[in-house]
Design a protein that fits this description.
Keywords: Membrane, Transmembrane, Transmembrane helix. This is DUF2621 family protein. Pfam families: DUF2621. It comes from Cohnella cellulosilytica. This protein is an all-alpha fold. It has six helices and no strands. Helix 2 crosses helix 4 and helix 4 packs across helix 5. The chain is elongated and about 80 Å long.
């Protein structure tokens, strides 16, 4: 038997690195999802609270506010759009319910969208709102 060719060793090393990287990325996202289902101090997880606010505000949504929500989540990549839509809808619903509104308005949608978006994404959020000609000046203090 001869020695193993060098190219084959490099081939195996390359695919080992690729598989470890893919598993690391997948593990990272699974771990983040796991953290969302852990109970907080009040006994409910982040996902429990999101579901609560979505259900509590379900009757307040109008066709116009649902359409605005779909417009706001349009820059999110398609595989993640449902999750983003649910978490943003939960924040919008929470704001609408806590303010005692009879329906979800454009102002609730804009404020909830800004509050639900992580600070690291505020730059792209601002450019998207400006591109869509959506006035967010009343909530600019939330973007600092």
């Amino acid at each position: 038997m001869g020695e193993t060719p060098t190219w084959f060793i490099y081939f195996i090393a390359f695919w080992t690195v690729v598989l470890v990287l893919f598993m690391s990325v997948g593990g990272f996202f699974m771990f983040r999802k796991f953290l969302k289902v852990l109970p907080q101090r009040d006994g409910k997880s982040k996902l429990d609270w999101q579901n609560y606010w979505v259900e509590r505000s379900r009757d307040l949504w109008t066709p116009e506010s649902k359409e605005l929500l779909q417009t706001l989540v349009s820059p999110v990549p398609t595989p993640f759009r449902d999750i983003a839509s649910h978490s943003i809808a939960a924040k919008i619903g929470q704001i609408a319910v806590e303010s005692g509104a009879s329906e979800v308005t454009k102002e609730h949608c804009i404020e909830g969208y800004i509050r639900a978006t992580p600070a690291r994404d505020h730059k792209s959020l601002i450019s998207f709102l400006e591109k869509k000609n959506i006035d967010y000046s009343a909530y600019s203090h939330l973007l600092e």
